[in-house]
Description:
The protein is α+β, with helices and mostly antiparallel strands.
Amino acid sequence: MSETDIVNFVNLCGFTEPLFMDMEYVARESVFGRRAAPGALTFALSEGLVMQTGLIHGTGMAWLGGEIRIVAPVLAGDTIRVEIEVVEKRETKKPDRGIVTYRHRVLNQRDELVLESRVQRMIRRRQVT
């Protein structure tokens, strides 16, 4: 994650907190010593990585919610990856869809857990012919 990624996100979304924007404050007050990314940015990027896998292409209907836990900071210069596990599947009353619960583990370049989440999505069922 680059400094530019963080700055663009905090400006776009209004995260105008000194921790994310003021490098003098970061140098003086932060325990990290460099620019930190908001947890919301880490989650958004992890969701983008999930989309890029193709896992839900053509089947994803809706993000229904989930639980997110930020475990450690992601800092400028870090990279992330996502491990995805299906933890539950259930049918709905409608025959063309179901609810799938995923567990996402977001790890940095040192294989340290930085975010974990349980995400529920409505998924279109593929018709078997």
